[in-house]
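Budget justification note: compute hours in this period were largely spent on complex prediction jobs such as the one shown. Inputs:
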Amino acid sequence: MNIPHILLTNDDGVDAKGIRILAELLSNFADVLVMAPDGARSGAACSITPHTPLCYKKKSEYSRIQVYACSGTPVDCIKLALEQFPDFKPDVIVSGVNHGDNASVSVHYSGTMGAVLEGCMKGYSSVGFSICDFSSDADFSAIGIYVQDIVQWVLEKGLPKDVCLNVNFPKNDGDSYRGIKVCRMARGSWTSEWYEAQHPAGKKYYWLTGRFVNLEPESVDTDMQALENGYVAVTPIKVDMTAHHVINELKELEKL
Amino acid sequence: MNIPHILLTNDDGVDAKGIRILAELLSNFADVLVMAPDGARSGAACSITPHTPLCYKKKSEYSRIQVYACSGTPVDCIKLALEQFPDFKPDVIVSGVNHGDNASVSVHYSGTMGAVLEGCMKGYSSVGFSICDFSSDADFSAIGIYVQDIVQWVLEKGLPKDVCLNVNFPKNDGDSYRGIKVCRMARGSWTSEWYEAQHPAGKKYYWLTGRFVNLEPESVDTDMQALENGYVAVTPIKVDMTAHHVINELKELEKL
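Corresponding output:
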């Protein structure tokens, strides 16, 4: 069997621990091309850079890992890598491991998952990994076997059309994870989001913080519930955001 | 009846023609609070600003339109306005009019629709407007009656839970629009996205451009098809991105 090709990015930047760990894990069974932002792009979502020219440069090269840093967003990284390295045809596109979870509605804000959606929109099997640990020195020691099993399963079976995977790991509390749960996104919302501060000259400014509220804490089939119970949460995410279930109801608008 | 309250933002920036036109149209029947980016944030998607403090300032005030400019993204604008103006309880959140369409997969990259999704996640009825015309002097002369009818319909009926509207107008070619079609997102993809240029000192850089490809040009129920045929395209968009239809199939992953 030919050795698989994996294109890897993230949103914490090319030097983050999460992407370095992930590149090493993937290089056990694949050739890895890293094209990642040259610094943190947390909360970048699917954002792109239409009004500023981008550049990229080689950071390092190992036997199975080439590393490039790009001045753009995670989505820019995927778009640029696919056109700049046409001979490196990815068998799967991977993003992460994000420092901090991307469960529930955080998918919408996540640069990690933005890159995964971009890969999916381009027709590639795409998988994002995140861990419920915001520390820059997060403990990734329990993820190895899960990363390998999930990515190899995807390499072997493929993913349904226009569907990608959002994989979240619980924070490592010393026990091993309890297994994998396939989930749906929990309904949730962020609240109390701003921390007001004052510039020495008197002007007010605002830091985005906030507290996540799970709006369905009793539901047993959500990503939040799986994570709380020590499972690796795998949520299939689709490109089509149409609310098909309300189209008939909204046809009334056509009579305006 | 009390006069409705509308919170308005966009991603082209507070001085763009599209948001000025929209504020005026909405002020015919509502009090309008504008909190919009202080410059262009095209392609901002649902991005947020976690690592830089934000500020905002009053730009102008008319009898029914207050205008504030914010240093953040469209999503930041919605989050900030809702906490900074707790007495201005929006009956609907509106975004746009974007200069350029946000049909098909462009929803994922759109800062206009990012703000709309944010409003929706916060439980507000939310509507985004865009026009298939990238010109900074785009012709909005045909949109007035549609904006009014759609927003008033939403004010009266509300929207289904966790669903928002993505409204796209055809480019104005002089004829009036043919009416409203309620649609689904077309499958589509961007291709040939980079324009390579050279810095005078020799280094290469890359501008994001690209060409959109409608992957289902024959389908009659898509937003792209409606726009091509001169209709105003209204696409309901949902917060839940879970690919529910493949969850059972993916349960195989739980056995890894």
